[in-house]
Amino acid sequence: MTDQPSIGDKLTFFALITLEKPISLLPTSCMWRFGSVLGRIAHRFAKKRRAILQANLKIVNPETSDLELTKLSQELFRKSLGNLASTMNTDCISSKKIRQLVTINDQEQVEVLDNDKACKFLKAGVTLPLFGKETSITPLPVILAQNYDCPILPVTIKTTAPGKWDLDFEKPFHLAKELDKTEATKLLIPIMEKIMKEHCSDIFWLHDRWKVKRSL
Fold it and tell me: What residues does each domain of the chain span?
């Protein structure tokens, strides 16, 4: 039986709906800067979350000094909350405005995909080593790519200014259908590690990335 939303849930929903319109009228850069300020404050006071972030960074970049780690963690809090706050604005603005905020590079890579086969993957999955330490990695890109015979197209997004981003496409690749989901997912790890290292300051590191979750 599905739980019914509480009065508090309904009030929160209507409050968000009411705020969406005036927020969409604000420049995205303003929302980003607002979130960035919150990120600076959170970095100072959210000790547990800061410790998780720094532990994640140490796994990815073990050679990083404590001073560099502190500077990078400050930048990550600022960017993460800035980008998160921007979603309150970008969710409501027109596609024309979005195109002004996001620069898309290497668009020819998108042409290899059929329109009906572009997918997003969010669930937890198989346990595999990432940067030498086991964690849960979703097999959904593998499952969808094999089931629908479509390539996997890695995409990165880089913050270039408050409320502005660059979208880049990596080279698409196919996976053999005969591979099981664990073996096929292993092939994604070098790509994930490359992206995570090259775009470290734009990765959302505030969650416990190496906490192993239940496998599918």
Answer: 7-202
